[in-house]
């Protein structure tokens, strides 16, 4: 069943797009991360233009984050004050990212920039996750002693002025730190179509020193508003949001996330992290291969 995507300017199999959304939703439910960082590269591999893939993936992440935010708010797992600062930074980052997106678009380098950024980002994150997963497995098997962790914010964060209290997070730090973190996430959301959770959550724990009980909920709170803002920015500036594609992905991801959450409860977390790390590295390798692989047709002619 083929459907025409008006913005991507090509036809796709609707069932394949729904299945792709379901697969990403399944992984999101199993691993507890947003699906945007996998949706965009998988769409690129399928053949969707990177600009459309990034913009449409942000739309999908917005819809998929709604239920998660309400669930965490009901159990008090959201630091609204911290989330508000992160959202403010994220919206500013989205506006700056849109300007950068248009600049790269006008120079004709946006597709290459998205692909290269994904290879670098996914490669570094994947290697870090792989190292942590292997260490956790060795600890679980008794081959390595567990290292005690102390929750504290980074010295650079401690040096920033204008401190304020974030009671739910148990912090007394400068709001400039989460503002800058949100700004960086907003840029990534615009350029790559990611929610930013797989970058934001570790940063909130290891840089800001937030209490783990509110990290995921606060991250989803920020992701919801920033991806919504990014969608609006894309729709009004870059014109790259394909609502048909986003709808197909969202239908699949909602169902897949529910199934993934059930499967996650039956698996050991260290092995889930290992599987996710290998998957992230595989996607990074495939995109990197596409950057260096010589295509069958070097030149194409487009008729207007």
TrEMBL record:
Its main location: membrane. InterPro entries: TM_pro_TauE-like, TSUP/Inactive_protease-like. The chain crosses the membrane at residues 12-38, 44-71, 83-101, 113-134, 179-201, 208-231, 243-264, 271-293. Keywords: Cell membrane, Membrane, Transmembrane, Transmembrane helix. It comes from the Bacteria. It is found in: Cell membrane; Membrane. It is a multi-pass membrane protein. Belongs to the 4-toluene sulfonate uptake permease (TSUP) (TC 2.A.102) family. This is Probable membrane transporter protein. It comes from Sphingomonas corticis.
